[in-house]
Every structure is written in C-alpha cells, then in structure tokens.
Amino acid sequence: MSKYIFIPNGGEAVEAEYKEQMLEEYKGNPFIEALPPIYSKDEVVDKLVVYPNYNSKERMLDSHLRVHMVQRLFQCFQPLQVHLDLESRISRVIRQGYLARNPFRPEYAAGLQDGYRMIQNLNLDLCSNKRFRTTAAGFTIIGVSGMGKTTAVNRILATMPQIIVHSEYRGVKFSMCQLVWLKVDCPYDGSIKGLCMEFFSKVDSLLGTDYYKKHVTGRHTVDSMLSIMSQVARHTGLGMLVIDEIQHLKQAKSGGSEKMLNFFVTLVNTIGVPVVIIGTTKAMSVLQSEFRQARRGSGQGDMVWERLKKDSNWDLLMGALWDYQWTKKEVSFTPEISDVMYEESQGIIDIAVKLYAMAQIRAIYSGIEEVNPDLIRQVARENLKLVQPMLEALKSGDMRRISQFEDISTVDFEEFISLERPKYSSEDKIQELLIKKKQKENTDTLSLKERAILKLLDLDIEPQKAQKVVEEIINQEESISVSEVVIKAVQILKETASKKTSVKKNKTEFRDEDDLRVIVEEGKIKQMSAYEALRAKGIIKTVENDFFQAG
To answer: Which Pfam family is one of those matched by this entry (predicted)?
Structure first.
C-alpha cells in the first residue's frame, strides 16, 4: 500500500517503494524500481475501464431526472486495442528513458551539478553534455479530433503516480522528488515563451518550487528559458514530457515551430527525456522534414490514431454504451443499429457517444421512449450539420480533404438539450427562472435526491413512491445526508402502509353483511360465483320456488 505525501505548496506524491525487476536492465535503478509494475493486458483493462453506476429501475423515473442520468455516458471509458498499444508504448518510453539516467551513476550526478550551475549562472550550453548517450525514445500521436486521444492519454497517465518521493535506496541516503510525467498544452499561438510559462507553472504547482517567479517574471530571453527548462527536467528526474495540441504550432511566427520542435529533439537526445506529442491531422504538415529526420532512430514509431473501423472494436464500444439506456422501453443492440450508428458517426467516438445521448434525450422528451434507427437518423440529420463536411471527407477517404479539418468536436450537446426541452407556459417559465436563481445555493440537491432514490430502488421500493417521498423530505430539510433521507423515507413509507392496513381493517369491521358487494366478496373467498352467493343468501329465488309458491 503506497504512502501518500503532501508536498508543501505542491501536489500529492507517493513514497518510493522499490520493486523487484524481472528485466536485468531495469535492476539497480531507483527511478525504474519505484515505478508501478509492468501490467499485463488484463490488468491494463481493469485499470482503464470506467463503467458508471446504472440501475435498470432508473428508467421508470421522471424525465427531468433521466435527462441528467443520460450524461453519465460521457463518463464511460471502454478500453480498446489502441489503448492497450498506447499504454505499452508509454510504459516502455518512460523506462527506456531512465536507463541512461540512473541517479547512482557518476555521470548522472555530474549532470545534476552542471544543471544546478546553469540555473544559477545561465552560462552553460544546453548541448554541452557530450558524454551523455540517450536511451530515450519519444513518439507522436496524430489523428482525427474526437477520437479520444487526450482522454486515453490522461487515463493511462492516471495509472501511475506523477510524483515519487525518494529518501533512501538500499541503505544509501537518496533525497529526491521524481517527476514521472508532465503534460502541458502547446500555446494557442504556438509561442515558445508560452510553452515555457506553462511548463514552469505546472512544475511549481506540483513540486512547490518557484521557477515561474524566478525565470518568467524576470528579463530572461526565450533561449535562456529553454535552457532552464531542460535543466529543470533533468533536475526533477522527469520521466516523460507530453505536449498536447501540437497543431497550434501552425500559428507560430516564422521559424517558431522549427525552433520548438528542435528543442523537443534536444530534450530527447541531450537530456534523455522522452517527448510524446499529440495533435490533430492538421499537425502533419508541421511534423515533417528536420524533425522526422532527427527522430528517425527513436524505435517506438508514430501512432496514426485512425477512426474506428466497423469491426469487433466498434461493436465492443457500442455494446458497452448501449447497456446504458434511460428510455422506458429497452431496445437491444442489433446489427441494424450498429450500422446506423457507424454510418452517422463514421467511427468517430466523440460523435457516436453524443449522437446516442442526443437520441435518448429526444426519445425521453418526445414521449417515444425508444431509441430506434429512424430516430438516430433524424437526430443526426438535424443536429450534426456542422460536422457533415468532415464526415463526408472521412467517407471519401481522401487525406487531403480530411487534413483540412482541425476539430470536429463542435456538436453542442448542452444547446441540444435546451432546444429539446418541451415548450413551457409563461407561468412555468417564471417558475423555472426562480428555480435557476436558487440553483447556485442548492448545487448538490439533485445529486442528493438521485442518490437517495437509487438507494430506495435497491430496496425494491416503487420508483414513483421513492421519488415522491425523497422530494418531500429534501424540501422540508435544509441540511440532510443521503443516509438520513433514506432512513426517513423508509419510516414514512412504513407508516403510510400501516395506516392503509388499519383503515382497511376498520372498513371490514363495520360493513353491512346484507350489502350485495359484501355477499359477493365473501362468496369469492369460498370460490362461489356471484349468482351462487346471492342465491345462497336467498337474494335470488329459483323459478321452481316461485312457481310452487304461486300455486
């Protein structure tokens, strides 16, 4: 069990726990031994997968609650083959980058001293470490926007600690904060200064340092900030630097993109820090020529993150999403639905998830309460107009047409919800405005209500009864916990049921036994028909009796 440490003015770290290494080259290096173990494919899936809570009884709740629940779809993360490949690459590049940076080797200690002098004096060349031979190997991830590149990288990075605190290694004092990974976004204008500013700001927020104050607010040039940046990476034992949104380099001033890419190459070759670069298809033109040549021998290879093909990966993703249905009528995932979803999303994960969510919301608000192929086509036709040019380009397979589109995540889900809401009367609108005015003070009311209702559903209480009693309790109590709501709700429901039973008993005690309804009811208990019961009581007389009495 890892011990967590809070760094003053910084982030959360874990205390180093050194693990026995299966591979000989990884032994004797505290940077590597302190990392999590190399996971198997099954372990990677277990660590990456996210299945939000779901209860089929939720489908019986009111529409305004179910619309909120539909947004749980965006929390779902289904690992695919591409994610397993990415996790393996990241695991390898971090470890390979540390091979030549063993802190117990003399050359590493000498590098730290050089770095310290550089930060103090700013008079050393970044490339002066001629004895250093890198083992680092970065790579790029390029693909259509909306495929979840950033989300996947974030999920994988979350499986390993970001900061590891060392104090002693094999009986030798070793005091150091190891920064395993750092992720920054390329500035929107593609400026090197903006990148340096974000780098120093992120490091300060994690390690409690003041690099930003020292080296950004002063009169340092961009070149000096790059030198300091590289030495900070060395000094902190940075395992991997991730640069996202690299397509912003297209906005850089003349020569700026080349200079920044050359700096990344220098980090890999001179300092030994692996650099992983993420970007959309628009970044392809930036990552050519000199940068490709400089990284030819990296060994990891670049990832072209293509849209999903209509194969087992697609069915795995859609099958996982389809389990989450909040329409009253549950629909099975069929080949026809799979075809329609793929045709309308072209295998873009972001569009597929939003399309499915929008189809559910349309079904709920309209009262159809069913997601079918026709509804999916209708929602796509009406709400994916902005991304249709991109989807048509994807259908064509022409990379020149595809590369013209930088971002396809323009499906405004919140706007869709607002447009789908039923038209209220003017009085309802005024009431809605009053509710919205109080939302800031009651931001947790819905989540409290939802959790309490779900608890009651688990106790096999009818959805309508659960919702009604929970709302009554929350409206009466200003501050109350979920467990208190559930306890009170159960008590109220029991008392209500007890009163109904008591009333029923009282009714039976004072009923008129000559009442025809009572006679029929008692006859049913004796398995007699209504005719037989009334005849037995003498209410109905037979024809024979009437005849003989008349004679």
So the answer is: AAA_22
